[in-house]
């Protein structure tokens, strides 16, 4: 197993840490493959939540440009291959997981690192963290879903401002604008993120997964299509053990014990 990714098993949930702190956790191919493997293992072993964070003083500085230096390559680099082989599958995997993925941004999140966080379901950040669409500084466009997520979360004006200028967006402003869920004091980030992961992982995760899918689908559905999607999801939820347990616990005035099914 690659040491570029660290995984801590918490029973019902897993904590996954990007672990190239000497490179601000920037991506090389090894870390890409290791992160994908860690997420797939969380899915395949029945985890009900994942917490994603970074080691050291930053979350992720995006692509390790040392691996994509045109001066060291024969011919022009084909960056579409990098996107299609690594970044796009990672975004698709995170958004397809049937449980919540929480991202704890513990420092700078730049380029693909910023947009990786936006692919997650709940983003929490330390107050010292910054989000930087650094692509324009090297003549690129926001990838890793950035040019899709930014306008949907912020609107066209703010999305273009961040993408075209490459200016850093402090965590508190990111929360104020609605780019992330909340900014927290640095020493509170990981305790709160871990507490949230633990709480969600013992919740009604069948319904939480369907909630995630429903909200994601709203970006492309018509209203009529989405009302049908809601009806289909409610049928699944209504027939679940979690719904029966939730109602029984409410009526009996006790804490529900959900199984995620």
Describe this protein's structure.
The strands form two sheets. This protein has a six-stranded mixed β-sheet, sandwiched between helices. A four-stranded mixed β-sheet has the order 4-6-8-9. Strand 1 and strand 2 form a beta hairpin. It has two domains: 5-201, 2-enoyl-CoA Hydratase, Chain A, domain 1; 205-252. Helices cover 46% and strands 15% of the residues. The longest helix has 18 residues, at 79-96. With 261 residues, the protein is α/β, with parallel strands linked by helices. Helix 1 runs parallel beside helix 2 (79-96), helix 4 (146-154) crosses helix 5 (156-165) and helix 8 runs antiparallel to helix 9.
What labels would you give this structure?
261 residues, alpha/beta, 2-enoyl-CoA Hydratase, Chain A, domain 1, 2 domains, 6-stranded mixed sheet, 4-stranded mixed sheet, 10 helices, 10 strands, 46% helix, 15% strand
The CATH topology of the largest domain: 2-enoyl-CoA Hydratase, Chain A, domain 1
Number of helices: 10
Relative helix content: 40-55%
Strand content: 15-25%
Q: pLDDT under 50 segments (min length 5)?
A: none
Distance between the termini: 31 Å
Report the radius of gyration as a whole number of Å.
19 Å
Q: Count of DSSP E strands?
A: 10
Task: Give average pLDDT, whole number.
Answer: 96
In the CATH hierarchy, what is the architecture of the largest domain at level 2?
Alpha-Beta Complex
Q: Under the CATH scheme, which class of the largest domain? A: Alpha Beta
Query: What spatial form do the alpha-carbon principal axes imply?
Result: globular
Which structural class do the helices and strands define?
Answer: alpha/beta
Order of helices and strands: EEHEEHEEHEEHHEHEHHHH
């Amino acid at each position: 197993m690659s040491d570029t990714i660290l995984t801590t098993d918490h029973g019902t949930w897993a904590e996954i840490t990007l672990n190239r702190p000497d490179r601000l956790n920037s991506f090389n191919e090894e870390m890409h493959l290791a992160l994908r493997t860690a997420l797939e293992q969380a899915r395949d072993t029945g985890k009900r939540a994942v917490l994603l964070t970074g080691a050291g003083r930053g979350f992720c500085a995006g692509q390790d440009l040392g691996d994509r230096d045109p001066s060291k390559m024969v011919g022009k680099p084909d960056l579409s291959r990098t996107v299609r082989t690594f970044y796009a599958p990672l975004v698709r995997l995170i958004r397809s997981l049937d449980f919540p993925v929480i991202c704890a941004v513990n420092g700078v999140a730049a380029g693909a690192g910023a947009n990786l966080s936006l692919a997650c379901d709940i983003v929490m950040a330390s107050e010292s963290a910054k989000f930087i669409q650094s692509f324009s500084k090297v003549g690129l466009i926001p990838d890793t879903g950035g040019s899709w997520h930014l306008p949907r979360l912020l609107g066209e004006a703010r999305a273009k401002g961040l993408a075209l200028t490459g200016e850093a967006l402090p965590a508190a402003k990111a929360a104020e604008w609605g780019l992330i869920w909340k900014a927290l004091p640095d020493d509170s980030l990981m305790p709160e993120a871990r507490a949230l992961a633990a709480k969600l992982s013992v919740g009604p995760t069948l319904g939480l997964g369907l909630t995630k899918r429903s909200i994601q689908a709203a970006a492309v559905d018509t209203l009529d299509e989405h009302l049908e999607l809601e009806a289909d999801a409610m049928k699944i939820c209504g027939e679940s053990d979690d719904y029966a347990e939730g109602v029984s616990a409410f009526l009996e005035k006790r804490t529900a014990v959900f199984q995620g099914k």
